[in-house]
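[agent] plan:
  1. take the single chain provided in the ticket
  2. run structure prediction with default settings
  3. attach structure tokens to the ticket
  4. add a short note for the reviewer (M.T.)
[agent] executing step 1
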Amino acid sequence: MKRDDLVRTPPAGSSHLRPAPCGPGVNLADALHRLPAGILLFDGAHRLVFASEAVFSSAEIERQSLPPGVTLAEVTRLLAFSGMFGDGDTQARADEVLRLDRRQSLRRVNRTSDGRIFDLVSEPLDDGGFISLAIDATASAIAEAEAMRIARQVQAVLEGLHGGVAAFGPNRELTLHNAAYEALLGAAPGSLHAGMTLRRIYEVLAARGEYRNADSPDFVQRRLGLDRSVPHSLFRERPTGQVLRSTSTPASDGGYVIEIDDLTELKRAEDEARRRAALLDGVLAAMPHGVCVFSADHRARMMNEAYRRLLGDTAPRIGEHLDEVTARRHAFGEYGDRALEEVRRQRSAWMTEGQAEHVRRRPNGTMLVIRTASLPDGGHISVVTDVTALAQAQDEQRIQAAREQVMLANIRHGVTLFDADGRLVAANALAARFCGLTLADFPPGIRIEDIRAKQATLGEFGQTSAAEVFVRTRNKAFGADSYTRVRPDGTMLEITTDPTPDGGFVRTFTDVTAERRALAELERAKEAAEEASRAKSRFLTTMTHELRTPLNAVIGFSDALLAQAGAGQVEGADAVEFSRAINDAGRHLLSLIDDILDVARSEGSGMAANPVPLDLPSVVQGVARVMRAQADAAGIALSVELRDDLPRVLADEKRLRQVLLNLVTNAVKFTESGGSVRVLVHPDECVPDRLVIVVSDTGIGIAADDIPRAFEPFVQLETALSRRFGGSGLGLHLSRTLARAMGFDLRLESELGRGTTVTLTIPATHQVVQEKTS
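[agent] step 2 finished; step 3 output follows
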């Protein structure tokens, strides 16, 4: 073929050059494409002119990767990187090929990276170009290697052959033999020697009883009378059971050669082969798969009963050609609406591939899987399996899967199913929503770690550090588990994991937000009820003690006063003292009742404040004057520190005074003699716009765990009835209630044995800046 015979007429869908038609009804390009050899044609500039289809299929590359005009170097590198020149450094392989002198005829054998073997031929052309052929010799190489292997095995067998060989001269006297000849005949070792006649050899063997099983007394005579000028082959069974074959072949010198083979194993093998053949026939007859064997000329040679049963009237007849079988099946409608020629083309493609598998539904509804495979003799075997029940089961399974998907989509729980490798098998839309994702983010096969990574990116597990901790602690072996998680939108999920028998697991998401809120409300109501019960108990205990003390004084002193008056012994000093004691006890009772009423009003609607601008220093100093005598009597130093530029404050004067009196009273009450109480008023150091009134003492202090309880009503941190410090336990509770009613805040800081500091905070909104007058 000359390169001038090629024209640039690329076929539809191809960028390659196509050879022009070379004769009536013959297209050279089509012929070259059908050749099993890969063909590459290059012009004088070593640019690609034509590439046959076998090049692309052999190298497993796309057609468009080698358009006409590409250079030899580009083609060589592409083939090298596709593994056509073997393993190793692909660039080095390509450079090695590029160094070849294309002006000469070249031929070499090449092994690809996947083990295939190609004969590579390069022939120069007149215009300086060349044509390169790549012929797949893998099958030939494998066959040759197998032949060589068998030859080596045969040679090894021949070298160790135990067959007997003996040569006789024209006078029928023994000239030479091997040890196996003696052993196989049954002669004693060394009993045969050159010069012995065949008759004498038979006599020696007869004397050893080798011919007692001969069929007649003249057995030896008949053997001696054989014409040794023509080949003979005789069989004999020795008394030991050995089966021998004796072959006589005439020699060129007028003598003959006798070869003795032990066919005992061969006979046993033949017997075994016959047994196996009978067994195979039985298996083929019993197996449910239909089997039919076609010869190289495409005629049916053998089939089992199952093949006839599955295909019925369309089963081939022994000796019938495959084309006739196909036509008959087409007439029965076995191929549906497809044309007969289309069926035959498809069948030819299957046979070309060597093996194929396809599914066909017969007109009677039977679903068949038909597998074909080539046989070494050029024929092929067809195996037919009835999969009707399997197809019906698969259809039912698809229907059931659709039903389950509808069920999953409509239940009130999010459900996901994972396999043993942690990959998603199925999920409903609600599960995706509970994970903060969409169903598109839940493709089957996605790993659970990747799902969590998406959730962490979207902030589903909180801030970065919290998300890392959550993902790290949850990425573990998945056994039975249940935990709750609160989503960023406040939804509370109960997530349950249950293992499946195949090693996977089912994960269920349940929205328990409403349920948990209801439980929380019930818990809070329970705690409130229990706290109310405890407050009632504290109130009764405290009031019992506090009321009994002044009542005992009132009753006791009044009894004493009455007794002395009845005896006429009342003196002015005693009457004044008793009256003062009765008066103090009555005032104490009144104070208790006032506190109880204030608490009752604070819990209702009777504590509304009436704020007016107040001069804060006046209020604070007034409280200090009231408490000075009590402090002095207890041996406690009471001091007040005020700023000159303090603004007026909007507050209820009575309530503010009551709050400060309660705070200073507590400070004096719980401070030992020799201690001090300080009242400071100044701007807040943290928020300068705010004012703070600080009452601090050096008293007994409060333990850190008891500080929250100090503000509860009727609480005395010293619970014994014989406690050192009296009081109803309402002071701090009432003070904070009144402060909050006025818009202020009250907080307490204390340390056991180191005193207490109470801070009243007045926000900027409750301050009135005083205008300076000139």
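[agent] step 4 note for reviewer: Confidence is low (pLDDT under 50) at residues 1-21, 719-726.
[agent] ticket updated
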